[in-house]
UniProtKB/TrEMBL annotation:
It comes from the Bacteria. Pfam families: DHH, DHHA1, RecJ_OB. Residues 366-458 form the DHHA1 domain. Transmembrane segments: none annotated. The keyword Hydrolase applies. This is Single-stranded-DNA-specific exonuclease RecJ. Residues 472-581 form the RecJ OB domain. It comes from Amylibacter marinus. Residues 326-353 form a coiled coil. The keyword Hydrolase applies.
Length: 586
């Protein structure tokens, strides 16, 4: 990825929200020109490709990512062959299989993948999802021992890499771990621990989430089965689950992940998985699925079960074969998601007050409160991170202990800091990956623990991060902002973590219409000097200076920054701008 130039784009050194606008640097800009010249791709698309680090030769293939071309050899991961052989043995011998899954979307989709694959072979596994509050993250002795009584093989998905004790507690039952969380110096005594973030791994596949690891594991078993002349379940039809887990876990949409999500969205559009159809309908998702829908509509609803409801609701939905039951579960998850939002809003207000009092320019922004629901602390940590542009941790205290969750910013490895603090005994428990982590802390040692994590993050440069600048791919006129160009831009997607969506500036526009919508949104129509118009929406406009600036425009000219999208209201497709920032053109 290239670094943006420090020169203010369109001379916007301070927008109405206080941000500096940055365009592509000179080298990336030249690269975009070369792509346009040698491929005839539109300039806007070429600029996005160049920003994503795509070369001229890679440009056209990048627009059609192939699973076949991008798929790594599953056996390149340590213990993969052991895991595949052990699961295949269980299938061949009709052994009883149990799945221990994490309570988030990645865990639910990983378990559903295994359930689907095994189901095609006539096997129904036991699925166990721990309660977030009563049991916490990962395997525990009691749950594992209970599973061992009715299973010959336990497969831990999206957890287990640090579970030495619980895995040792079932020494008489084989355990396979399929995970992606950062590993410690030693691994638990399992038959296999397949994890691209083991310390002895190359790191080439560190971007995979657990669902991606499970997918590769099933591909490895299918390879064994083909060699033996056996039936192989259809993995391609399971890519909707992989896509959902990847996007919802905020895994980078790069390399193989990008192909998985791209193909998975196509499978999801076919509406064949009963549970996802029911959830899409409950969420009123009435357009072709995109990564945005997975991350902001479907993912939060599946997560709601584990956060504030019944932990296994998500996986029950994803494995459901009865439309009526699926509809009932989806409605329940929808309701729980609303409850989660209310709880989250209350915690967020208190956490923000605390964080601001401590200072938002520290290496670590953190807050802790007695009785804060552990199901929402991760979401609130994300809000703090976005506000401060710093790693953030939010902790719910419950008597002598506190359970928290953290989120990081690009370039700062929060998981490594949490792992170090755990090894040093500063934390009772902790683990995660670069961008997200969980922890358990002694309430009396809270200040000491946060201070130590802050020190570790400062060594990575977390205290040197400036105000979050707004990065733009270029400028585009309203007349050029067409449905056609938006569809071209979609070819470089899907967009998400590690591959941010295109953002353009529309310069020198005047407001011809502005109306407040709902409590704090603003609907606007802009016009340029040629008379070309474009409709726009600014969500949460009155939570910042954007709303007042546009509503009280007094005929002034503005530069508008945001993302282009297709508005298909009433079946009429047209380009629309989702406003992210505004600057006075003067």
């Amino acid at each position: 990825m290239t670094q943006e130039t420090s020169e203010a784009f369109l001379n916007v050194s301070r927008s109405v929200t206080g941000r500096k606008w940055l365009g592509l640097d000179t080298a990336t800009d030249r690269q975009a020109q070369l792509i346009t010249q040698q491929t005839d791709l539109p300039d806007a698309l070429a600029r996005v490709l160049a920003r994503l680090g795509v070369s001229v030769l890679e440009a056209l293939p990048y627009l059609s990512p192939s699973l076949r071309d991008l798929m790594p050899d599953p056996s390149s991961l340590r213990d993969m062959d052991k895991a595949a052989e052990r699961i295949q043995l269980a299938v061949d011998q009709g052994q009883r299989i149990a799945i221990f899954a994490d309570y988030d979307v990645d865990g639910a989709t990983s378990a559903a993948l295994l359930h689907d694959w095994l189901g095609q072979l006539g096997i129904t596994p036991i699925i166990y999802v721990p309660d977030r509050i009563d049991e916490g993250y990962g395997p525990n002795d009691a749950a594992m021992q209970k599973l061992a009584q009715s299973a010959d093989l336990i497969i831990c998905v999206d957890c287990g890499t640090l579970s030495h004790g619980p895995i040792a507690a079932v020494a008489g039952t084989d355990v396979v771990v399929l995970d992606h969380h950062v590993g410690g110096e030693t691994l638990p005594d399992a038959v296999a621990v397949v994890n691209p973030n083991r310390q002895d791994e190359s790191g080439d596949l560190a971007y995979l989430c657990a669902a991606g690891v499970v997918f590769l594991t099933l591909a490895a078993i299918n390879r064994l089965r083909r060699t033996a002349g056996q039936v192989t379940p259809d993995l391609m039809q399971m890519l909707d689950l992989v896509a959902l887990g990847t996007v919802a876990d905020v895994a980078p949409l790069v390399e193989f992940n990008r192909a998985l999500v791209r193909q998975g969205l196509k499978i999801m559009a076919g509406r064949r998985r009963i549970g996802l159809v029911a959830l899409s309908d409950a969420a009123r998702m009435n357009s072709t699925p995109k990564a945005y829908h997975l991350g902001y509509l479907l993912g939060p609803r599946i997560n709601a079960g584990g956060r504030v409801g019944i932990a296994d609701l998500g996986v029950r939905l994803l494995t459901c074969a009865d439309p009526e039951e699926a509809s009932a579960i989806a409605e329940k998850l929808n309701q729980l998601n609303e409850e989660r939002r209310e709880i989250e809003a209350q915690v967020q207000l208190q956490a923000m007050d605390q964080a601001e009092a401590r200072g938002l320019d520290a290496p670590l922004v953190w807050a802790a409160g007695e009785g804060w629901h552990p199901g929402v602390v991760g979401i609130v940590a994300s809000r703090l991170k976005e506000t401060a542009n710093r790693p953030a941790i939010v902790i719910g205290l419950d008597g002598p202990e506190g359970k928290g969750s953290g989120r990081s910013v690009s370039g700062i490895d929060l998981g490594a800091a949490i792992a170090t603090a755990t090894r040093e005994g500063v934390l009772l428990k902790g683990g995660g990956h670069k961008m997200a982590a969980g922890l358990t802390v002694d309430s009396e040692s809270l200040e000491t623990a946060m201070s130590r994590i802050s020190e570790l993050l400062a060594k990575q440069g977390a205290d040197q991060i400036g105000v979050k600048d707004l990065r733009l791919d270029g400028a585009i006129a309203p007349r050029a902002a067409t449905v056609d160009i938006i569809e071209h831009l979609e070819q470089a997607g899907p967009y998400g973590a590690g591959a941010s969506a295109p953002r353009f500036a529309l310069p020198f526009l005047r407001v011809s219409f502005a109306k407040k919508v709902g409590q704090n949104h603003l609907s606007v129509t802009f016009v340029d000097d040629s008379g070309a118009r474009i409709s726009a929406i600014a969500f949460g406009a009155f939570d910042s200076e954007i709303g007042p600036a546009l509503q009280n425009h007094a005929g002034k000219s503005f530069h508008i920054a945001g993302r282009l999208e297709v508005d298909d209201w009433n079946g009429r497709n047209r380009a629309k701008l989702r406003i992210e920032d505004v600057a006075f053109a003067e």
